[in-house]
Task: inverse folding
């Protein structure tokens, strides 16, 4: 009986420690970052072109887009919407535009249910809208930053954390829909 009691105490301590670690991960602003991100370009967007909202109707995602940067190898994050990495092209321009958000119910939690063929709408400051079609999804480790690399097409890459203790990144790649 003492052995069983000790086993439950150890299990309880382990679960408590795991819970505290998970809470720390959920508030750590750097957990969304990739560890080897080096793609940066000088983008000087006109105010009217900046993306303001991302809408994925099939996933019940409708979020404001907040411009953000990588400062001292730390990715800026927000709990007010999705972050648009301003060193990447404006969504709809040539290249790979990066948009990311926490894996929270109020942000990108439903992103893991994305499937190829679904549409993503980006609304801009001038009230124009561009539609992107999901081409593929993937889960990668934080050291696999190849999905953030420049591209020759007009694509957006969305991502959020996923996996056990958010140890992976869930990626959605979509390209601009032909008119």
Result:
């Amino acid at each position: 009986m003492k052995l069983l009691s000790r086993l439950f105490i150890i299990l309880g301590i382990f679960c408590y420690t795991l819970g505290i670690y998970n809470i720390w991960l959920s508030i750590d602003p750097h957990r969304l970052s990739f560890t080897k991100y080096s793609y940066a370009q000088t983008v000087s967007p006109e105010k009217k072109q900046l993306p303001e909202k991302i809408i994925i109707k099939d996933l019940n995602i409708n979020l404001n887009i907040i411009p953000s940067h990588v400062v001292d190898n730390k990715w800026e994050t927000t709990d007010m919407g999705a972050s648009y990495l301003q060193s990447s092209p404006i969504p709809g321009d040539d290249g790979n535009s990066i948009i990311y958000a926490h894996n929270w119910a109020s942000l990108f939690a439903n992103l893991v249910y994305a499937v190829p063929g679904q549409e993503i709408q980006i609304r801009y400051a001038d009230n124009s809208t561009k539609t992107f079609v999901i081409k593929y999804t993937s889960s990668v480790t934080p050291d696999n930053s190849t999905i953030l690399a420049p591209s020759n097409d007009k694509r957006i890459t969305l991502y959020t954390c996923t996996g056990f203790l958010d140890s992976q990144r869930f990626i959605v790649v979509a390209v601009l829909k032909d008119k």
